[in-house]
Each structure stands twice: as C-alpha cells, then as structure tokens.
Write a sequence for this structure.
C-alpha cells in the first residue's frame, strides 16, 4: 500500500509548520510546547471517533455490494435515494469525525454526489441527536418543530441541485478511489 499526500494535506502541513515557526519566533519555545501538548490531547480525544467512523465506513462497504449501493444511493436512485440519504444523515449521531469517514465509504461503495450532498445537508441541519439534546431544551417545541419542518426538504433539494450541476457542467469530481 503506497501512501500519498494530497495537495490539501500538504497545504495544511505547510500552514501548520509556518504557524509553529511564527509562534516560536513571536512567543518562544514555551508557546510551541504548550501548543503541541494541546494537539496531543485533541488527538487522543478525537482518535476513537475517527477510528469508529472509519470502521463504520469500512463495514458499510463490506455489507452492501456496489450494485446495491448504486441502486440505493447512485445517480439513478431518484428522489428516493436522496430521501434515504437524508434520513441516514438525520439519524447519524456524532460529529464530523464519524460522518465524513462514512460519507467517504459511501462514495467509494457507489453512492453518487447528489446522495452524499443530501446526507451531509441532512446531518448538518436536521440531525436528531443535536435537535433533541440542544435545540429542544433551549428553543422549545414550537420553534424546533417549525425549523425542522421548514428545513426538511433542503437535503433533497440540495441533492437534486448537485445532480443537476454535475450533469450540466464539466465539473469533475475525479476518480473514485478503489474500495
């Protein structure tokens, strides 16, 4: 297995190194050491979530064949595929460390960009976990219900727009990575 670093990763690495040099130059070694300690703490905190998300994604690839995934969430799955993706996004608990590895696995397994846009839109604005834990207690039933109902069609509309844009422009998402 050959590891490759993406352009985005290289940019983040250069910015991180430049930030470290600037911190050292402006505030000394103690600042850099404290930043590294904080970084290690954050890594230890998020690593289990990242590993769980990647495992879920890997298992999803193994549980559902590419043909089945394409039928459920592929470009020919219609509005039903977008609705299914939206429902999955709404039900996915956790933060980006869980959802983005799952989205990547769905992409590799054969889901189209429209379904993934619907999933992420739903996860971001309709997540039931966030709604029950944060929104209901702070904003009340009436406002929460109004916002939820108003936002309900957004993932499907976003997924349809993604499909339309991809079908009518030369926009290229690149090759799918091998499963």
């Amino acid at each position: 297995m050959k590891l490759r670093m993406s352009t985005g990763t290289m940019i983040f690495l250069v910015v991180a190194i430049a930030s470290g040099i600037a911190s050292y130059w402006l505030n000394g070694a103690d600042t850099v050491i404290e930043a590294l300690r904080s970084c290690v703490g954050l890594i230890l905190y998020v690593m289990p979530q990242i590993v769980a998300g990647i495992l879920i994604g890997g298992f999803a690839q193994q549980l559902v064949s590419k043909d089945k995934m394409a039928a459920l969430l592929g470009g020919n799955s219609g509005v039903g595929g977008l609705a299914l993706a939206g429902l999955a996004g709404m039900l996915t608990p956790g933060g980006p460390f869980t959802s983005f590895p799952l989205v990547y696995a769905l992409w590799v397994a054969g889901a189209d960009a429209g379904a993934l846009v619907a999933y992420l839109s739903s996860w971001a604005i309709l997540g039931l976990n966030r709604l029950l834990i944060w929104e209901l207690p702070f904003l009340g039933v009436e406002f929460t219900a109004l916002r939820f109902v108003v936002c309900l069609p957004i993932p499907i509309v976003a997924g349809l727009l993604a499909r339309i844009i991809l079908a009518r422009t030369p926009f290229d998402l690149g090759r799918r990575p091998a499963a």
